[in-house]
């Protein structure tokens, strides 16, 4: 049989600084994707649930969840960026730049902004800046992601290492407020909670209480919906233990949805400052979440503030984040640092 | 960690007669929800499957399944009504008042119409009348539901008991016929069965033959889609036996869809007279259903009659309903009493 | 209990040559069905993913996947054709005649074109030609299918056997090119692979590399979505081993989606020449696929060719098709022969 027409994925040597990769399969997203998003995650933020609520917040109607945009764009990059990835190491400088409306067609492209071979000569770290674009060529989302990728030829000489300088946090002034967003007539009763930005304090920690036990069918439906093709999520024969590794983004969406309970008014994602998939997640895990308020900022839109949150997903009870050795505790699945728009 | 911003649910003492509760997360429902409904339940009633069939019945196009309306409205009430419920005791005076069209935005509110503390002093029964409203402030659905709720403080003095007088059955004259509904050109071949109202007899019992084995992923997808947040449906650590309790509404939808086989022309739900979730349902249960014709009525719309049915869902083979002691047999899951519109 | 109003399915004696069967439950399909299709199968063909890509190929927007049309039409036939089928024996002369657009309402009818009693006197083979029609009474799909059906009365005299003459392969000149289809400005980067028709060779075999492990919930959601009511797919009590048999069409869709990897440009299905469900498929099976190029043809539309492919789905590794005895090897699930439109 011939393998020459199938995609075996890129290896470390295949990435050169400045390369621009056009990712395949542009995708039109509509209300079907939204319905599925609500079936897959316990999402209840009112602005993504109700056209009327969104209109009362100055938008033409309810956009698709910001994480739908993220997953669709991320999924497109997988065949080109992470098919041979050993590890998904981090995110930085992520920003949502424009809402995704039902009917929009998204495509994605990535620029290689850093490469650094590991000292073992068997793999290296690749940094890409990915941008998602809509049918009007407007950027809807951008983020930097770095992954560890295997070398094809362990004996090949190392290229010059280039590690990009990345901001630890997106500055509040760099957040892009969706056109028209206005929280001055915000309906707290319909949103589900009375807490506005000023009711939170930096350092406050919120246990989101609820837990969700994950089934294989659920994470596979979700991951396929985003056209993410990484074998480990779908093929039980890939690992010796027969387990399918759950796409890290599934845990992000679960945790974000669970955070409704205590952060119902942190309506829209604005930026992804950093993120770590601390430990792998598998079916039958019961996922819980807690948040810590890191920072707050007033913004130049009526009634709109920005709240910076650490969102932690755990397997089992919420608790500490790291052990005495500084490493993530084994029950920690996700440690995400993001900005959200919230009524001030 | 702080729990003060999260919703711990209301306790018995938190309900006062006449209170009006505005439920959170209004929801725009479209064709995505309908596609999922058809994936989750073996729904085949033609009026909810085909725009053309619905138009031939005098409607502008095919509405969302009446149980979508019910589940969306019910789901919204859960955080405020049944998060601490010990048991879902009953339904009465339910009526579908207006079809829900794709694109409609639903919200829900409940009025406390009864409270009665149990003699043990540890819980009480709360009666609420819930109404679902669309974006035009039209009521699309209303029903009374009563639940047993824990007291927060077992030592607190009992309030005055008020038990509302509820109709045992909605009168045929109180059924609201959707505007334009006309069964005079009804296509029985496309609907799937030749039986009109006059072909049924009061007392006739119909075994719906088919069975469906339930998976955890399915009932969780469904229950989440309705934004129902009750922990027992999602979190396997909530019960000592590690089982997730299946949302009673999931069994209603399963049984109603199964009833197509023998009642394909009982097209639209008109009223919910009474309902009991007789025994809990769990994944791996194989659900079957049977119906009994209770009553029939001619209505003031062309070709439209109303048939009152008892719909019983069972785990395993259909059989008797109650034992010698008058209690539901253990294999009975649901005993529902409803009106449907059917060609006369 | 009465069974007289429920559908027990037809037996062999119930089919008479020339009978036309109108199948129930016409169905309006929209973007919700498409979103579910992408969640259920790893579908990435760009023309069914992006309105913009489809427009660049001369279509008004992205149609629903051709296999959505097939499954919807096939599902409608099940209560009338295969409820008592012992085996699904074959397909022939299948052609997609018109794209299905979101919002279309499909219905189906079948004509009995052959009946042949088996020598054992207990069953017979029924041949039907099924056509799917849209709301404009345009045929969107037609195919011949033959099934083995039980006799009701084993002692009844055999009818005269009529076996229709069926083409082994649809001729390229009989393929119906969707109106406007134009691959002259085809974007290979967005489609995901550079290979055009001329890059393939007759006899070339392509291993599609990826594998998907199937869950019970997934195949039941899919099969229900197509309103397919065959008990064996849903009811774990139907077989002694407690297994649910997976709808053969689920395997077709899985294999077709997997074939993206190596055949990303075989965009649209044109004809179904033949097909065999070689062995039953069950949950926990990991499905892989390989294709063999059988034939190619240039067509009378700009840049459009037709490629005839054998698509084989296997449980476990791809390998040989038949054993020394000429029978399918036990790991072979599907052997499909189809035409697809591809850039020349």
Automatic annotation (TrEMBL), chains A, B, C:
GO MF terms held by the record: lyase activity
CDD domains, per the entry: FkbR2
Pfam family for this entry, one: MC_hydratase
Stored InterPro entries: HotDog_dom_sf, MC_hydratase, MCH/BMMD, Thiol_ester_hydratase_Rv0216
Domain of life: Bacteria
PANTHER family: BETA-METHYLMALYL-COA DEHYDRATASE (PTHR43664:SF1), MONOAMINE OXIDASE-RELATED (PTHR43664)
Protein name: Mesaconyl-CoA hydratase
Annotated gene: mch
């Amino acid at each position: 049989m011939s393998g020459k027409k199938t995609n075996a994925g890129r290896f470390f040597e295949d990435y050169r600084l400045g390369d621009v990769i056009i990712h395949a399969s542009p995708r039109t997203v509509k209300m079907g994707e939204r319905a599925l998003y609500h079936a897959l995650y316990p999402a209840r933020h009112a602005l993504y649930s109700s056209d009327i609520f969104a209109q009362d917040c100055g938008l033409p109607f309810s956009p698709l969840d910001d994480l739908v945009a993220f997953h669709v764009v991320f999924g497109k990059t997988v065949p080109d960026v992470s098919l041979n990835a050993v590890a998904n190491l981090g995110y930085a400088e992520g920003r949502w730049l424009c809402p995704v409306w039902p009917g929009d067609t998204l495509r994605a492209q990535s620029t290689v902004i850093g490469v650094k071979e590991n000292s073992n000569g068997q793999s290296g770290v690749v940094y890409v800046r990915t941008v998602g674009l809509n049918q009007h060529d407007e950027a809807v989302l951008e983020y930097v992601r770095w992954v560890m990728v295997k070398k094809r030829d362990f004996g090949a000489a190392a290229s010059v290492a280039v590690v990009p300088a990345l901001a630890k946090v997106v500055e509040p002034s760099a957040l892009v407020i969706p056109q028209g967003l206005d929280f001055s007539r915000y309906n707290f009763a319909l949103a589900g909670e009375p807490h506005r930005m000023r009711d939170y304090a930096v350092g406050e920690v919120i246990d989101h209480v609820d837990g969700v036990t994950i089934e294989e069918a659920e994470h596979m439906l979700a991951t396929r919906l985003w056209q993410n093709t990484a074998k480990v999520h779908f093929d039980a024969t890939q690992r010796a233990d027969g387990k399918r590794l759950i796409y890290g983004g599934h845990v992000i969406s679960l945790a974000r949805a669970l955070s409704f309970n205590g952060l119902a008014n942190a309506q829209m994602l604005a930026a992804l400052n950093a993120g770590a998939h601390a430990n792998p997640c598998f079916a039958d895990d019961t996922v819980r979440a807690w948040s810590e308020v890191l920072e707050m900022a007033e913004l130049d839109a009526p009634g709109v503030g920005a709240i910076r949150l650490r969102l932690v997903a755990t397997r089992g009870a919420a608790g500490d984040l790291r052990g005495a050795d500084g490493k993530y505790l084994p029950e920690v699945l996700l440690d995400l640092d993001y900005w959200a728009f919230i009524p001030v």
